[in-house]
Amino acid sequence: MAKGVKRILVLGAGRSSSTLIRNLIRFSVEEGYSVRVGDLDLALAQSKMEGFESAIASQGSAAFKLDAGDAAQRKSEISAADVLVSMLPASMHALVMADAIEAGCHAITPSYVSDEMAALGDAAQAKGVMLINELGLDPGIDHMSAMAAIDQIRDEGGQMQSFESYTGGLVARESDDNPWHYKFTWNPRNVVLAGQGGSATYLKNGGVELLPPHRLFKEVTRVEVPGEGYFEGYANRDSLGYADIYGLNAVDTLVRGTLRGVGFCAGWDAIFQLGMNRDDARLRWPADMTWRQFTAAFVPGCGPNSSAEDVAAGVERLTGADAETMGRLHWLGLFGEDPINFNFGSPAEVLQQLLEQKWALAPSDIDLIVMWHRFRYVDASGQNCTLRSWLTLRGEDYLHTGMSKTVGLPLALAARHIARGDWNFSGLVMPTERRVYEPLLAALALEGVAFSEDGGA
Amino acid sequence: MAKGVKRILVLGAGRSSSTLIRNLIRFSVEEGYSVRVGDLDLALAQSKMEGFESAIASQGSAAFKLDAGDAAQRKSEISAADVLVSMLPASMHALVMADAIEAGCHAITPSYVSDEMAALGDAAQAKGVMLINELGLDPGIDHMSAMAAIDQIRDEGGQMQSFESYTGGLVARESDDNPWHYKFTWNPRNVVLAGQGGSATYLKNGGVELLPPHRLFKEVTRVEVPGEGYFEGYANRDSLGYADIYGLNAVDTLVRGTLRGVGFCAGWDAIFQLGMNRDDARLRWPADMTWRQFTAAFVPGCGPNSSAEDVAAGVERLTGADAETMGRLHWLGLFGEDPINFNFGSPAEVLQQLLEQKWALAPSDIDLIVMWHRFRYVDASGQNCTLRSWLTLRGEDYLHTGMSKTVGLPLALAARHIARGDWNFSGLVMPTERRVYEPLLAALALEGVAFSEDGGA
User: I need a surface site. Which of A439, B53, B99, B281 has the fewest CB within 10 A?
Assistant: First the structure.
């Protein structure tokens, strides 16, 4: 690949692309590449490039209206690019990657490697094209920071015994004004459906464990993050698969999970026990239904005419909720007389409408990303050791949230590495590989995305 | 359709076909039709026809080896028949029905009308072919007995207020020698996965209610069946759809469910809470694992080395199981040292292996079918009334179980009605229609499948 000015193509300019696009344009003059940003919403793509007019003009960068379903447009854009960053929905990545291979264009995404994607590895190899996936926050920074620590422990002759890792997209203390300690910086629907994808499986003290969805928010691990205080973690779906991914086949504990503020899980467990987050039945609700009446639908023995007190007492009895948890449900307005105005849909859809109001990130709010790892190992001298490693990162503002920075920066930095010709890999490449994580973690640290470490609990 | 001797074709000679096939052959001479029975297992099909050699010979009836995936064989058999009874897996019915329409052959099945099946209605109508589905026990006898009562209440000027209905395939008291009061007369896998298909939705006291899967076995209704004592019912998935099916759009209570012996639901709830019935994660289990170690995998804090006492204490704490429930789990051997010999699979698959031993129907065992309806209505004089209606039916033996009789007899009787030319319907026909249920309920009563009624609780 020895064309003149390198061309980086970004497909998708949504919430997670803000910092990615800004970083790419900011360094485009110095490093000598152009950036094209395509989105179905042209104005959105243009807005993400604002403030860099002279850089844009000097490099011939531009926004354009993208119809991702239009194969001709997609192929024409991709064949004119040297590096593609796909921020399209995950289901489109294999399609776009196939175009990239055909065009001889390197491609990176923040999404998990699907089976379809994995099948493209050989073709990419043959064409000298590199495909890098799982290069956002989680998956992404988690892979890189974990493997850096694990490789170092091994390099020094240590034997891994245990790996625990939790990540959360949360709200910074200064913007935390609700008893759930949570606001949306991510797809609200995914948050409402959290845990419903299936049982969690992990390894603890030498035995495989399975936790069914309805117990996920009951079995919570307290996690201390120095400087930020305590959080609670609940287990993600498949931790066992990470034994192969990280080469941890002799450990006796292996758990990955999601972090939330203290008390969130007890509150969400109450909702989970009631079934208010279910998405498996779409119901016709009465036109004038109130939130109290909606809640009553999950409390056998209560009905549309039950009082708020009776419904609340039923919830307390069914879920075992304590006073603080009941306070969180009251704060949401679940026993109140506000009308719902939602005539047909699943409980999850109805609840999401409420949560989008209550947990909205205000324009002045600052979000907080927290990632926390704990490695236990026996060192070369036979000593039991603990290494704790954590990242906390605040957003700058409503546009450049912590989420947008931690998802976008690994992608931007990788795209620039490729444009500069620093990497000449081909085929499917993973961020767990030292040749990827070493330069990227160093570059992330310069952008303020840096881990702290100690030997603590 | 005015051929000579009518020809009835049965596809599938499994467990539920025994009584169907016997009834068809038994009346074949008197009513003048032949019967062909096809199954992948020719010996099985032949065994189901034993004892009627002269009837078989006189009518030219026969068993044959069927490869249901062989379209040429299927089409050739179907085009030579006047009435088809399909006992194939439900997923094959639409395919077989399409063949039947093409051949001008009437067709009946015990399965729910799928969307694919519904789409065949017009073509069947145009060809003068009748397709009758949902003609077994549940669905089947439930539809017919419920609609007979509802239509009678309406004919007499009554207004339906409430409909509750529960059905179970159980074991007769004289063969009930385990603390779960249950043995398999039905697909064990479906029993192990019970309730995991999704939330139950129903109407109670004027309000819609939703019960998530993990609470299904906690919210149990006690049902008294005169002569058989008490049972417990848990709600089936979608009761709300029956408002349209039975024309019950003004009732304030509408629940359908499954019956089990008293105590079963508390026991199954403990298993459900633990997640031991989950089918959403396939795990690699240690080669020498015991049942105690398997159970420990569902008890956070316990591991492969925990004692039986510790694992049992953990189960008690997590599930709130009382002494009787713990006794049921102990009876299954879940805390014992027997080896599992199951290296890879979901918890549901491991557990099914155990239950197939523990809940096996012995050759000398007698099963019991129980169906129970309760109708509440206001009669023409404005009086609040209750009608309770129930069916209990014991199997004859291991072959002609209550399950085989109640699934097979409605189909056999309908096939004979059609062969005799008593019905000249076309298109999709439902057992909820009076023209279907009236003659079939009368014929079922002659076979000993008869409902009792009272005005009781």
Answer: B53
The model's pLDDT over B61-97, given as tens digits with 9 standing for 90+, comes to 999 999 999 999 999 999 999 999 999 998 899 899 9
For A253, name the nearest residue in chain B, comparing CA atoms only: B303
Residues of B in contact with A298 (CB under 8 A): 209-210
pTM over 0.90: yes
Residues A82-102 have pLDDT tens digits of 999 999 998 899 899 999 999
Residues of chain A with C-beta less than 8 angstroms from the C-beta of B210: 275, 278, 281, 283, 297-298, 347
Whether B208 sits inside 8 A of A273 (CB atoms) is: no
Domains for chain B: give ranges and CATH numbers: 6-136+404-448 (3.40.50.720)
Q: ipTM for the complex? A: 0.90
Reading the block at residue B162, the tokens are 């409430």
> Contact A215/B273, CB-based, under 8 Å?
yes
Question: Cβ of B305 and A206 within 8 Å?
Answer: yes
Mean pLDDT to the nearest integer, A284-297: 95
